[in-house]
Design a protein that fits this description.
Strand content of chain B: 25-35%
Largest sheet of chain B: 9 strands, mixed
Largest sheet of chain A: none
Shape of chain A: globular
Structural class of chain B: alpha/beta
Largest interface: A-B, 30 and 23 residues
Protein name (chain A): GerAB/ArcD/ProY family transporter
Number of domains of chain A: 1
Distance between the termini of chain B: 99 Å
Mean pLDDT of chain B: 88
Order of helices and strands of chain A: HHHHHHHHHHHHHHH
CATH class of chain A: Mainly Alpha
CATH architecture of chain A: Up-down Bundle
Helix content of chain B: 25-40%
Membrane topology (chain A): Multi-pass membrane protein
Low-confidence stretches of chain A: none
Number of domains of chain B: 2
Structural class of chain A: mainly alpha
Number of helices of chain B: 12
Subcellular location (chain A): Membrane
Main location (chain A): membrane
Distance between the termini of chain A: 32 Å
CATH superfamily of chain A: Amino acid/polyamine transporter I
Number of strands of chain A: 0
Shape of chain B: elongated
Number of helices of chain A: 15
Keywords (chain A): Germination, Membrane, Transmembrane, Transmembrane helix, Transport
Oligomer: heterodimer
Mean pLDDT of chain A: 88
Radius of gyration of chain A: 20 Å
CATH topology of chain A: Amino acid/polyamine transporter I
Helix content of chain A: over 70%
Number of strands of chain B: 13
Amino acid sequence: MFLRKDDKITTTQAAIFLTDTVLGAGILTLPRSVLEAAETPDVWLSVLLGGAIILLLMLVMVKLSQRFPGKTVYEYSRSIVGTIPGAFLCLLLILYFIIVGGFEIRVLAEVAMLYLLEGTPIWAILIPFIWTGAYLACGGINSIARVFQIVFPISLFFLILSYAMSIRVFEPNHLRPLLGGGVMPVIQGLKSTILVFTGCEVIMVLIAHMQHPERAVKAVFAGIGIPIMLYLFTIVMVIGGMSVDAVLRSTWPTIDLLRSFEVTGLFFERLEFPFLVIWMMQMFCNFTSFYFSASLGVSQIFRIRFGPVLFALMPVIFISAMIPKRINDVFQLGGAIGYIGIFFFALLPALLSAIYWIRKKGLRQDV
Amino acid sequence: MFKRSMRRCCLLIAAMALISGCWSSKEIEDLSMYAGLALDVGDPTPLERELERKGATYDKKNQITATIQIVPAHSSSSNQGDSSTKGKVPEFLNTTETGDSLFEIMRTYSTRRERAVIGHHLKTIVVSNRLLQKRGIDSIMDFVLRDNDIRPSCVVFVTEGRALDTFAKNASGTVPAQQLRDFLRNRFRTNRIMEGVNLTRLDALMRTRQSFVLQNVVAAKGELELSGAGVIKGASGKWIGSLSQTDVESISWIRGDGGGGAIKTYDWRGEPIVYEIESMKSKQKAKITGDDISFHVEIKSEGRFIENWDIREDPSKPKYMEKAEQLFEERLNAMLREFMRKIQTQYKVEVAGFGESLRIQSPKTWKKVKDRWDEVFSEVPVTFDIDLHITDFGSSTK
């Protein structure tokens, strides 16, 4: 039942998998975090620039992974740097996935407790999510990808619908002037925009499961292109609808944008509720992806069966979600994850690639 | 076989735990929703005084009096259902409490009303100018901005006089809090109604610390009228004065965001003639020479010659049209001059969007002056170029 050898996904599925992994809490936190990094309406340029940088980094990951067909990063890092250092690097990666997964559901729980389920204890929100995530991950990557395929169009539709409705409060002047502060703020904004792409490391796990690993580049372009566009859209609509100053004074700017207007005549008068409910599914996908990647890692490094690992990680994820004591800690953790993410985006693949290259060209060792 | 069906049974029973519904659900019948919130300077009502005399009080300073307008007020269980409006169910119920924390006041309502109040459907907030003279708008609005039930879509008004008077019962039987919000829909008819300032917008305005205006409400005998605007000084967040209805029109001309309205003036015989605004556009151009800032505002409008009391004139003649256009332009110019005098010399605030134009057109200059923009602006020369164009004279040629 667990992880059949023929458990492969198509290129489209890989792209959606990647999109769902990247797109999560960022939609809710990005507008303010990026404006805190650079107080200018030009930050949408930072999103584009950040996305482009991520795409380049991901190409490195893809090229590296393609050298080891059918192997995940957990398996091939061992053959590049040796068993112990490889396992160490991978454990770091697993830890990172666990923290990010915990963070994503924590953000989800925070927003749900504030706007939807006031009075419901946090464990009652987190635990069903972890259980359902485990149930989904049990089915292997194929079932995960299929659920993502079903959920993604729905959440995408509601996201676009919500933003389209916010046109009524959209004020182009909020986005002007273009480059009023020069290019420097755009560069400063990168600090936070690169971070919202955390999760793209799963490509190093994903390629091993692709039916056509040679098409991975295509999957990456689609899988990162969609989040770039959606993040761009988010920034433009949220800043345009609320102005830089209002975003900076709002805890959850995207939700507040939807709370700033009422749509009379539509089935929903207040869009934040359908949006939040639908976006929960998206965050669930997001979380499951990290959960799956972490479990797969543990199972491959220690050569334990996948099922027991999945169950063993449940409390670990729960604890990691519960570590931040207050909302400030949650946001701080979000920032910290971004910085740790840079290591995994850039340094890990680069390091592995460099060592691989030296060993292959320099020592001509069989790797 | 038996074992399997047992397992199935157990599974089904376990599944029931999941269909128990929403943990945090509250029956809507058990809650009272308030559509309006009126904030006044702390001054307990006679009823409150009596309650307090009988011991119904707690540790507080009487800084703020908050009135909530609960809709609908169920007459069946409400002891306030007065019999004077015979057979007619009161549409709303006002409850007033005084204290020094808005949140505490909100919770105190629970000791006076059987259904807990909930802020999801708050539409309108009216703040009295006296309260705004005492405390900055930042502190007054802090709770409503922070609360997770109150939506930032609700609109803020000011009133000269007591805010709770604006929530009084009126002849039409409508809910004043909802009525006020719906007034804003009439912007297409008159530019004396400003674009509503919702909490998100207010939040942004307060953060920039620039001065701004809020629509003013006047109440008399239970009737409401939107009239003019209250000026909030950015630096202190306090109310410093009011603008007339004509000034509000001037703001819309300068910003070019009015949806409709009229210009009335008098012709050479002193008879009224009226221009119906069909479109208005304006361009604020900032000119910067060295450290000197100046503005040039180009106003373009098209409209209809809609009313003429002077029966001796023939408005269908092109010559008359040109003369009328000039009269309307003069009138508009006089309006704008008066408005500029008010904001530049009387109040020394900038509330007509010149700051925003400067921010967009010359971000560097803006950065230098934004912290003392009100003072800087009071010295800035502003010139107008008005071009009104009468397109037609309606369905009567005479």
